Amino acid sequence: MSKTRGIVLEPENPMVEPPVVGDDANWYDKSRYQRNGTLDAAIIWEKIQSGIYVPHFTGSATSNANFGALFNAAAKLWVSLWFKLDSNFAAGAPADQRVWGKWIDWNNVIYLYFEAATGKLKFFLKTATVTRFSIVAANGGGDIASWDGGRWYQIFCSISDVAKVRLILNGGTIVTDADGNAAPNGANFIIGNMTDGGVSGFEGTISQVKVGLFDLTPGQNLNHYEATRSLFGV
Q1: Where are the beta strands (DSSP E) in the chain?
Q2: Which of 11, 128, 160, 188 is at 20 to 30 A from 75, Cα to Cα?
Q3: DSSP-derived 3-state class of residue 192
Q4: Reduced to 3 DSSP states, what percent helix, strand and coil does the chain have, rounded to the nearest 5?
Q5: Are the C-beta atoms of residues 144 and 173 closer than 8 Å to each other?
């Protein structure tokens, strides 16, 4: 990550008991910029089968990680992470679940979310009142509209003025859009929701979060999945 002002998130010592909520390094940025997120009180740490600790989000208004006003108006932005839902998710779910985002208002927002009406995982950008794109995670059989609780998935999503929009699940099908607009110019970068204190947050665990401000090749996209899949028994 030396070529970016992105973030690389892990517990400060991932193989030992993580610090309690309220510690300055409760989700530690391993990049040289060391911008540690502020975890809300409802987040707890869980140890997974590989021995690392991951934060669990409850979906409540007091369960997200806030990294402040990062990546404003970024022309290039990618986010890579692993997630595991607490429960199955499909069309007719009780509410949307927002994985990460930057929200100024409903006319200026970028976020990744599970849509209750369809059961799909969507990547969405709207700026200056215009919807720039709304794309759906897919595999070889088309859009995915049903997700297993208790199962780990890896997702990569990116915007770029050059490489445009990509959404990739488990290193597989690359869903694209030709939009080249930048991220909203304002708002905090939030994981586990799209706003700090908002409703419809993510319900489950998130790990191996990496964020960058440069273009990656499809092969580099795939490496985010291959390099870490063994941690999650995939």
Answers
A1: 7-10, 28-29, 38-39, 44-47, 53-58, 65-66, 76-85, 89-90, 97-105, 108-114, 121-127, 130-136, 138-139, 142-143, 146-147, 152-160, 165-169, 174-177, 190-191, 203-212
A2: 11
A3: coil
A4: 5, 45, 50
A5: no
Q: How many CB atoms lie within 10 A of CB 133?
A: 20
Alpha carbon of 92 to those of 8, 96, 128: distances in Å? Answer: 34, 10, 30
Q: What is the pTM of this model?
A: 0.91
Burial per residue of 70-93, b for 16 or more beta-carbon CB atoms within 10 angstroms, e otherwise: bbeebebbbbbbbbbbbeebeeeb
**H or E segment to which residue 224 belongs:** helix 218-226
Is 150:137 a contact under the CB 8 Å cutoff? Answer: no
The CATH number that domain 66-232 falls under is: 2.60.120.200
- Residue-range domain boundaries for the chain: 66-232
Place of tokens 């199962």: 151
CA dihedral 51, 99, 221, 179 (to 10 degrees): -170
Answer for the pair 180, 161: CB distance below 8 angstroms, yes or no.
Answer: yes
Report residue 199 CA to chain centroid gap: 17
- pLDDT, mean of each 10-residue run, the chain (234 residues): 59 58 54 68 84 89 89 95 98 98 97 98 97 96 95 97 96 96 96 93 94 90 90 92
Q: How far apart are CA 176 and CA 194, in angstroms?
A: 22
